[in-house]
Amino acid sequence: MSKLKILIVEDESLLALELATSIKNYGYSEVHYISKAHLLVKTLQEKSINLIIMDINLNEKMDGIDLYRSLNPDSLLIYLTAYIDEKTIAKAIQTDPLGYLTKPHNDSELFALLKLAEYKIENRSPQTNQLLIDLGEGYCFYMDEKKLFHHDVFLRLSQKETALLSLLVEAKGNVVSFKTIEDELWRDNIPSASSLRTLIYRLRGKFKHQFITTEVNHGVKLDFFDFC
Fold this sequence. Notes:
This protein has 8 helices and 13 strands. By secondary structure, the protein is of the alpha/beta class. The strands form 3 sheets. A 5-stranded parallel beta sheet has the order 2-1-3-4-5, sandwiched between helices.
């Protein structure tokens, strides 16, 4: 069974549906598509996407290249476009795409790019020399680069969310006091109680499973994790 989890970002719904149908005909079952850029972040996290097929010429404030670059996802990338000039190619190259599909797409080119993506997903081993913390349910945290993944898909965290998760991982299941969190994350700028609660709430919301629990009037902890 293929590990590819594909998301098509295309503002023309009919074209997106045709492309999704072609991909499914090759035996890839996890294929999703969206027509609005604001749905991208939510879909990446909820569906654990590892391959994005992105239309360059979106009817949005940003083109597909800038949109991908602004999110900096760990997903592989294929660009979809009706035309592409030298300037656009130079800009697109900076995002390290697997390749390009012209509209209307060519099935043989599509199949070749899908097989290439599948090969890369199955053979890549990100951060192999880093200390890897298995949080369970497909979530892993790389201590050296402070990156969170879900089934090999990078989950974007804010600076403070990353710092808090690092503290919880380093505590190895023990409670991290609210005072320690305040001292480490805010230093001399003591936060309001609501700021701390909001941070914990946001980090907890990154997980589909309840890993982070609060000890009333004491602190927070990670309930499940192990060293890989």
